[in-house]
Amino acid sequence: MCQYLPKGGAGMKFRIAKMLLRLLAAPQSQATSSAPPSSPDDRATLERTLHELNDCMDLVHRKFPSNGMDVVYFAYLVGNDDLYRDIIQPFSNATVQEAAARLACLPYTEVQNSNVCIDGILEGMAAIFLKGKAYLIRIDEAEGRSIAQSETETVISGPHDGFVENLEQNLSVLRRRIKSSHLKTIELPVGEISKTNVVLAYLEGIANPDFVEALKERIKSVEIDSVMDANMFVQLIDENPNSVFPQFLTTERPDAVASKILGGRIAGFVDGSPSVFCSPTSFFDFFSSPDDYYQRWLLGTSLRILRLVGFLITICFTAFYVSITTFHYEMIPHTMLLNLTESRSRVPFPPLIEALLMETTIELLREAGARLPTKIGQTIGIVGGIVIGQAAVQAGFTSNILIIAVATSAIASFVIPSYIMSASLRLIRFGLIILAGVLGNLGLLMGIGFVIIHLAGITNLGTSYLTPLAPFNAGDVLDTFVRGPFWALRKRPSIVKSSNRTRNKMRR
């Protein structure tokens, strides 16, 4: 029984647990990855390692004269405290027999394959070479920002923590919320150069195993040099990559991810990204906010309905204005028609060009406000919108009624919780404006019909994007268009196709 075990901070506990799991799985995973020990050309040796990692100025090669041991690691990936505790202190004055006996204990892992040894060094481990054998020990320093509130998904009530760029921290946050032995995680490397770890998390017995296998196969089929973020990665595994609509829900909120996993969905973590993707996903999932569940159900329902109304306003309001001012004046009340005629009397452009110019100006202000520093961005958004809008009306560049229509459409897009979905709808708005300016109400209806047909044709892991509308499921309405009381939400969503759909046994 070895008495030497590393001691460290809070993050070290999770790393030790992960290391132990890997060691327990060594007969299947590491043994297979180092399976070619029979080939002498693939053996992990000091010479082969130094040759493979040559011309790296941050590579450290340390020798121990007392026992002839060599240690190789990257200086900027390891923690100084771990390096001193696990390598320098125990081996500096140790004899060959003492060093060999210590390396036979945890947390040192013997490796035989050269590729496994080099990959370990690249991940922040140190490689130890003694008497023709190679060992790995994890002494990497977990750097990154501390857990803080998500800036893109703020809530009024409820938890205020958010995911960060460190994969191990994100998994620990999830484990604290779901303390179940049925929570399973699968690690898959993606990226031939970056070797980014992608972890799938799901509840065994609740998540559909066919969905898990389908998502695993789709991830394994990705062949790309590097993956930098979850929002980038989901574009590689989309079933409809040319669609403007996002097909995987991404979020930075641990409570939202835990809720999705408990509902039978699969969550995907990408190392180096604070965003987590969930699947399968429907179109209406993008209009749900964690705030809905932290407030009374009547208030949550009204807010969710308000978002759906905002969705209709943001894609149709400006296009409808262009349609009626170009082709359908008879639809305007007489009292408003006089004001509209007077407002448009000095505008030199037709309604279509006028609307496109103002929508483009709004998008320029939005993009400028997002790219500039926070305080300057707020000034650009408020002052720029007021000054440009007022000046455009006074100069006869546009009508004041169009300013109201464009501003209302822009404000309505802000109520949608998902920024990616909001951006997609803003792009669709331009297409509907053009159709309305060319064909009037007929073009507007044709555009809406095309959008509905396109949504009906999108699938996510083989499930319909318009669930529970198509196919219709009355039981899911209580948690889609409205937020029903918790005692009424007895079943998991039908889209997950779970074998255990019961999630609530309360009776009222």
Total DSSP E strands: 12
Query: Strand-and-helix sequence, N→C?
Result: HHHEEHHEHEEHEEHHEHEEHHHHHHHEE
Q: What is the subunit arrangement here?
A: single chain
The outline comes out as elongated
Strand residues, percent: 5-15%
Largest sheet: 5 strands, antiparallel
Helical element count? 17
Low-confidence stretches: 1-14, 19-38
Q: Give the neighbour order of strands across the main sheet.
A: 1-2-4-5-3
Q: Helix/strand/pairing class, anyone?
A: alpha+beta
Number of structural domains: 3
- Report the mean per-residue pLDDT as an integer: 85
* Rg calc: 29 Å
- How far apart the termini lie comes to 57 Å
User: Approximately how much helix is present in the residues?
Assistant: 40-55%
Question: How would you portray this structure in words?
Answer:
- It is a single chain.
- This protein has 508 residues and is α+β, with helices and mostly antiparallel strands.
- It has 3 domains: 10-138, no CATH class; 167-281, no CATH class; 304-460, no CATH class.
- The chain contains 17 helices and 12 strands.
- The strands form 3 sheets. The chain has a 5-stranded antiparallel sheet with strand order 1-2-4-5-3, with helices on both faces.
- Helix 11 (297-326) runs antiparallel to helix 15 and helix 16 runs antiparallel to helix 17.
Topology:
Blueprint: H1 10-24, H2 30-33, H3 46-52, E1 59-64, E2 69-74, H4 80-91, H5 96-103, E3 109-111, H6 114-122, E4 125-130, E5 133-138, H7 167-177, E6 183-190, E7 196-203, H8 209-220, H9 230-233, E8 249-251, H10 254-262, E9 266-270, E10 276-279, H11 297-326, H12 334-344, H13 351-371, H14 374-394, H15 400-414, H16 419-439, H17 441-457, E11 459-460, E12 463-464
Antiparallel strand pairs: 1-2, 2-4, 3-5, 4-5, 6-7, 7-9, 8-10, 9-10, 11-12
Helix pairs in contact: 7-10, 11-15, 11-16, 13-14, 13-15, 13-16, 16-17
